[in-house]
Specification:
Chain A: Keywords: Cell membrane, Membrane, Nitrogen fixation, Plasmid, Transmembrane, Transmembrane helix. The complex is a heterodimer of chains A (55) and B (757). With 55 residues, chain A is mainly alpha-helical. Chain A contains 2 helices and no strands. The chains are: A mainly alpha (55), B alpha+beta (757).
Chain lengths: 55, 757
Amino acid sequence: MNTLIYLIPVALSLGGLGLVAFLWALKSGQYEDLDGASWRILDDGDGEGESSQTL
Amino acid sequence: MSCCASSAAIMVAEGGQASPASEELWLASRDLGGGLRQTELSVPNAYCGTCIATIEGALRAKPEVERARVNLSSRRVSIVWKEEVGGRRTNPCDFLHAIAERGYQTHLFSPGEEEGDDLLKQLILAVAVSGFAATNIMLLSVSVWSGADAATRDLFHWISALIAGPALIYAGRFFYKSAWNAIRHGRTNMDVPIALAVSLSYGMSLHETIGHGEHAWFDASVTLLFFLLIGRTLDHMMRGRARTAISGLARLSPRGATVVHPDGSREYRAVDEINPGDRLIVAAGERVPVDGRVLSGTSDLDRSVVNGESSPTVVTTGDTVQAGTLNLTGPLTLEATAAARDSFIAEIIGLMEAAEGGRARYRRIADRAARYYSPAVHLLALLTFVGWMLVEGDVRHAMLVAVAVLIITCPCALGLAVPVVQVVAAGRLFQGGVMVKDGSAMERLAEIDTVLLDKTGTLTIGKPRLVNAHEISPGRLATAAAIAVHSRHPIAVAIQNSAGAASPIAGDIREIPGAGIEVKTEDGVYRLGSRDFAVGGSGPDGRQSEAILSLDFRELACFRFEDQPRPASRESIEALGRLGIATGILSGDRAPVVAALASSLGISNWYAELSPREKVQVCAAAAEAGHKALVVGDGINDAPVLRAAHVSMAPATAADVGRQAADFVFMHEPLSAVPFAIETSRHAGQLIRQNFALAIGYNVIAVPIAILGYATPLVAAVAMSSSSLVVVFNALRLKRSLAAGRGATPGTLIHSGAVTS
């Protein structure tokens, strides 16, 4: 019973962390272009430095 | 890499033929403030990282472009550009050309068409919140089921209640609102049993928790909500979006025109104030404001609004002209014969407003199912309650069992059965280059037995295309393009597109309507136009199919043009035949031309010289004879019939109005998109029915268990999750069959036009 006192808040806050991380990812457009992101990682930018720019 | 390396010469022509007018691009762009605008273009041929780098590089090289980003998932490029650079107004067509030069097709998509809306964002948030709540409550519930002792169980129940309460209010509000709306209007829908089950189970569980009870349903109510919200979100993605076809059409009618009074004075008047009998001046490049008759002047008129044909007609004194047609080359003086409200464009708008054929009457499969489902569920729960009251007389237990019945029968799998299949099918169609406007369109497409096709722009490409570019030296082509820049004639546009970016030639320029362009330079007089005009002798062919470039009446080059049939037309018509679908042609063009094309494609059922109204009538007649017709068309003259048809499809090269009016838009050139879309929709329809069968089968097994009172929260959780998963996996089979079926129809679509060099 005693362990529950800290284990439950830990479990809940970990879940909450996941939720917040998901909402952040959604908001910052991480899911906008799933196909393109996997290709962009190979793009060295050729000195333009603009490829990482988001709209 | 190889998929992107395409032959630039071919693709430029393709990119060019689709390019919308600069004016349309301006109107479709979004004002970001601070002199910046944003344009969304679709690039259906972008497939890999090299495509991203090429397109973005091409755009960033332009000084007007502030930012450019390709989205490979939606195959779109979003360009933020400056309205002015160095005092010069930006021409957004340059972006299209820049992309086309690198070998990619582009189509304009106006913002509202696919923009993520607020409701979708809220739904996704609600899914996230309910998902969070469901996992945490499930964690606690598993501990309870594993045999937590009384005090711990109560604690876990209380924590669950604290999580579930806010989650139900936040994430469940969509269902509560919709259920309340239905009840208030004396109806019932799928959301009523959902709202009832969720709130009743929460209430009962809270009551049990207070009374230190053994069973609480917090996990069931939140998991239920989680699954249903996923279904609702997917369903929302498949909902039809507001159509702006009619407002797009209204844009084609000019706001006003210059009226010449009998005393010779001129006045610019709003189009509504123009009366029959007024004399009007329509300059080159303007649209005809009202129906009228030509008093003086000669010009080429783009009448694609009226008959869908791209080749301009020459009009001269005495000819009648329709409102909305575009005056291409010379100024005209007209006498108005009708007021704006009686004019041609107004008639089409009226037809489109009236034409809400199969679309409006169609009830979606899910709605039809819900109509029988929810009363049955309510009745079942009520009977269970009454039954247990009669047997035991214990209100609490009877209530618990009734709630269990409501939860078990809650349309979890049913709510997922349709949207999951439709989202997967839409994804499959998108990969094949077909965009779906809404889910009901797919259901309707699966039902059709007749396909009616427009000719120009649908069965054919619809624009003249330079076919002998390889015979002409690049220098001559560049000269011709430099001259052609001065004209809006489709032939001139085709030359410009073949040559790429051309700087206008310097000199004294004159465009002779119905003949060509003449430029007096230091080298001599260049002429580009009909053979008669350029070298002073009539050629073997008509003016439409060739253009001559001459210097001082000496022929320098002969450009030949053709309106080619759309690739894979014949195969597609045969494929439709194999699917058991009848085909027909609806065309506004002359009978001999239509007959020739029909016989070459093996279509016996064709109609020629149809007005937009007659097209609608043919379609209505087919509907009355009991046929469900798919109409494929592209022009403004097709817009009413696209709307009136049971379901409709348009190529991405179609006029804005046509694209908006259609349910499906196909982005690649081959016509095989049509049988591909039909096959996919039919397959999706099959899977939907299978899913319904699975969901009903689940209920047949689970409901007796619930009615007999054996459905503990553990049983409910397992049953609900497994039935939902089965339905989802069944839907995903559609995706697998894509890989298997690629050889059949969509194969030709995937890399259409991307000629490997």
